[in-house]
Amino acid sequence: MQDLYSLLEKSVSQLGYELVDVEVSNRGKLIRLFIDKPEGINIDDCVLVSNQLSNLLAVENDIDYDRLEVSSPGLDRVLKKDADFIRFTGERAQVKLRIPVDNRKNFIGILQGIEQDNLLIEQEGVLHRLALSNIDKARLAPEFK
Fold it and tell me: Whole-model pTM?
């Protein structure tokens, strides 16, 4: 899986996009990619990346798949890299931990950046320091009014 991710990330970045996430499901037969760029993603971007990666994966004989999907990460995009947490400082996010902190695994609050391998997230006026290594899943959690 790591080899596949590295291959996809290199190809996507050469096209000028950020690889946000990769999901492999249905016993490896479906590969779903989420891409982004600063000005956002449109259908033409998805088609370009899909065509390029289809050609690339056809050359890579050891990658067996039936379907490739390329999409934007959406408003509730996954946050995985340190750079994601920094980029989206000031945004509302939901963070799920592997091991509870203060008897809690789930936090929803405003991202405040990273400090010494800890994610800073403010929830109801309280600043929490969560070890980056303890984060199981994190994603933006926009509020719609």
Answer: 0.82
